[in-house]
Amino acid sequence: MDESPHESTGQLELKRKEDQSSSHSHGVTETSIVSERELSRELGFKEALSIGLGGTIGGGVFSVLGIAAGFAGPAAILSFAFGGVLALLIGYSYAKLALRFQSAGGSYTFAKEAFGRYFGGAFGWLLWTGYLTSCSLYAYTFGAFFAHMVLPEGSPHANLVSAVFAAVLIILSTIINLVGVKETGKSQNIIVLIKVIILVGFVAITIPAVIKNIIDPDITYLKPFFADAEGNKLNIVTGLAMAVVGTSILFVAFEGMELIPNASEEIQNPEKNIPRSIYGTVIIATIIYILVAFTALGGTDYTIFASDPEKAEYALAIAATPILGAAGFIIVSIGALFSTASAFNASLFGSSRMTYVMARDRIFPQFFQTVSKKSRVPFISILTISGITLIFTLVLDLAQIAQLASSIFLILFAIISLSSLVLRKKIKANFIIPLLGFIMALSLLGIFIWHLINQVKQDDTNARVTLILLPILIVVMIIGSIVTIKLQERSKKVSA
Question: What is the CATH number of domain 42-495?
Answer without folding.
Answer: 1.20.1740.10
